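Researcher: Next sequence.
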Amino acid sequence: MPYISTVNVNGVRAAAGKGLLAWLAVTEADIVCVQETRATDEQVRAALAPALDAGWQLSHAEPESKGRAGVGILSRRAPRAVRIGFGSIEFGAAGRYVEAEFDDITVASVYVHSGDAGTVRQDEKYRFMAELGAYLTARTGDFVVAGDWNIAHTERDLKNWKGNLKSAGFLPQERAWIDELLAAGYVDVVRGLHPGVDGPYSWWSYRGRAFDNDSGWRIDYHLARGDLATRAKAAVVDRAAAYDQRWSDHSPVTVQYR
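Model: Next structure:
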């Protein structure tokens, strides 16, 4: 029964020193998708050296922009094949998508732009979404793409939805894009395992008392298709016990697949 986890590490070098390495040493996950490494391949390997020495295999998409993006997949066994990007000319070197093929499943780690409503950054996010959506829709077989999508799909997916109706991450066009992926055959497996509840949230602002009050967003998804989507057995957000024990502003979201 494979356990697959996803977490935005918010800078792998900082996270490694604050608790990521300790978490990797005890997690049940067989595969961990990470986002926002914000580092070169060499820097990521240096930061994760103890975990790699312990047997973790790393597949990493290095970002072209220094200090931004960067995604990776840590796995207990070496993948059969690794692909960086999804064929996009504009975003091919952005460090926002990597997929690893194993004998029975293919796992992808994705980091979608955060965006900013009414700006060129939001336009860039929409272009990325359009290209990624076309690629994902064409995929077949047992496949899961996990990561930080920076979109709360429904009112259940963020605490203060009324105050964010015009905010990037909860805009109608973004939410409709998630609808399109689900209509194309993807399953939001965490929501499927936690129907009709608020959250479970996976990101909380560092500002104010958002974490203590659980005033968060659910933006870290596992979208699965094929037989794999029906095999999701349990899902948990590995939320830190206290604010000062956090090593990222996101918490790992782990799904157990039969």
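Model: The longest strand covers residues 3-8. The mean pLDDT is 96.
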